[in-house]
Structures
1.
Amino acid sequence: MARRLTSTTRWLRWLTPGLQIKRWLVLLMVSELVLVLGVAYALKEIYQTAHLPSGFYYITLQFLPYWARAIMFGIFGVGLLLVSYLKLTQSVLGPFLPGNTTTSVVEVIHAFRLRGRGPRVVAIGGGTGLSSLLRGLKVYTSNLSAIVTVADDGGSSGRLRDEYRILPPGDFRQCLIALADAEPLMKQLFDHRFKEGSLDGHAFGNLFIMAMADVTGNFEQALRESGKVLAVKGTIVPSTLQDVTLVASINGSTVEGESKIPKQHAPISHVFLKPDGVQVNPEAAQAILNAELITVGPGSLYTSILPNLLVEGMVEAIKASPALKLYICNLAAQAGETDGFGVDDYLRVIREHVGANLFDFVLVNSNTAHVPTGGQSQVIFRPIDTSRHPEVRFIASDVVNVKIPSHHDPDKLARTIMRKVWQA
């Protein structure tokens, strides 16, 4: 019974508006009808002028009235037409469908059209938080733009940045993986790290992006071409095209370098970018101004979120955009950055750095039953936070990944955003 219902649902999908299939199917039927009429006139002329064997009387069903013959041939012809059309599309498009062989053509077309009509979403951030968000949102819309921080200076990204003077590719690699169609295989390949020789510690994806930048001539074009190669749903844009360094004021002294700041294990007073006057990437600003929904976070407050917002022109573009603005608060404090922080502390730090009235909504986790796996403290939302920030609307929802409680669940997060923010 379940299989029969699934089959029926698939057939009904062909009736969904906006597939841009039915109009061409009708045109195909009309053209075939015109052709059949021409053949019918020719056959009529043959019947009237030629002497045919007696067996043709039964083959052509002349013993039945015209209306009965019309109905029989019409039903039989439409049935053959539909079966041949479905089998033809499966044969032609089958090799180009994603790896799931159980996916039908109509389901692929329906999902593609649905995502194409999705909202224009700009996601600002970096690291694991941004890639998790993109992995969930790509199910609902293909009109995605990820604006990624370029302050990363640790690990493989930092080495490539120092040696080849390119923007750090690590966070961009994670976004490409998250938005790729063949995600499981691409994740394994792009996250693969070499363990020997001069490539020791380098991720294959970082080297791929670096090589693409060398081939195409610049980092932006490398991201576009990498997106085409991986068939990503959306675009990935650096927040700025300039070489920047994140600097933090800690205990009265300054610490330079995104990777060094959390290692101080001391309260951070303030962060800023070096050099001064770093300008926003024009492509990023244009995406923000054209957006219908802008999300900031989740991600490390001082080393992923603020490096984007501190770029000159970024906050101005966000405020000027007519889009809904959403801040997604972290689930767990980050060691060396936000130890003991609550939701109010995250909003306070953002206000101190870039001003108030930046967001319309703040999304917080309502499921505190799962303790973060890394031993960090949970980021708790308290009712008093509502009165401290009357300019925003707080949305509390279960968005925790129960397997890794310090991370958001991509599906839960995207579903909450689409239902409680976009459709609110």
2.
Amino acid sequence: MKNTPVNFKIVNEKMKECNITNVGKASIREVKRLVDFIEQSTGIRFIRMEMGVPGLPPSQIGIEAEIEALRRGVAAIYPDIYGIEPLKNEISRFVKLFLNLDVPPKCCFPTVGSMQGGFAAFMTINRMHKDREGTLFIDPGFPVHKQQVRVLGQDYMSFDVYNYRGEKLRDKLESYMSTGKVSSVLYSNPNNPSWICFNEKELQIIGEMANKYNVVIIEDLAYFGMDFRKDYSKPGQPPFQPTVANFTDNYMLLISSSKVFSYAGQRIGMMVMSEKLFNTKAPDLLRYYNSDLVGNAMVFGSLYSLSSGTSHSPQYALTAILKAFNNGEYNFLEDVKDYAEKARIMKKMFTDNGFRIVYDKDENVPIADGFYFTFSYPGFTGEELLHELVYYGISAISLAITGSERLEGIRACVSLVKREQFPDLEERLKRFHDDHSK
């Protein structure tokens, strides 16, 4: 019987109940369910790092605006599929003020979280060309995006970008795009799970390849502005959030309200497509839609089919939040800097106890401290390490399920770890190190 901080026998019993033989191979939601059961049975509070969910209070500006909208009776009215006009206008302003992009309101849409935006993007963009219905994922990435294309019955390709930073990225992209099978490319910036950030040179390479092969880039900006090495919070002032849209018109942006605005529960996100892409005619779309215009197919085909519009009252919440940010009345990045400070402290606890940071640099520049970080421990694969850490009251996810080739690694999310838990985390890491460094 192992002498571990969390009862060895109970952990094994709960794994059996959850039909999990190896925690390292479990999905994010499976890990969450297992840890919930262990906590309930033992009374021991875990260091919860498996879920990428916000850990800060929601915007009061949004709450008040949503309450007022509900009082006006919007709950009884279907919202327009393409979004309420005030929100479309504020999304367009936001994109101009914080990315320096000119996108008309007609190309800006609310979605049921950026998850729905991604699903609609795959559904539409990957049907523009009947001879290439495939997505290239620049990994590591959010595992559910691959699940979405599988559900749609579409092909996908992927590669881990770790060894292809800088100019090396060009040849790697060319090797996939030159096959003629790639319809879209998706990546997140900052990246979930590694927290790497593409620089201007790399974004230019991606944009140039998109232009060369007429491929649409789906840029996931779920962690908008959260590369805290630079201040992207001043409306209308550089620096602006880096984006591939500076180098190609073949783009679609997915902007989440969950992390940077702490408004995850209401499932409200934004989809922004270039005016050129909106107005592009793709006759092959007529296989599925009544229009061969990409914008119309997206709105009246995909978004209509998926949800018949985004929930009405959260649209008013997001309108108010964006308006406050756009007017410079509220610094939307100031609150979420707490994630970076926690990551800095936690990473040091890990490295002081024999752990290593896996994705540690953007080319030759140390990565930012932020929402996620990745770690490993000598002698363990990521799956083995995650399985072992559960007995020490620490949960996370293996990089193996994110498309990473760094199979020794684990992704940690800092958001749900409270500062009062830091002594417990430090003690458990020390205990783990003492037990495994002999």
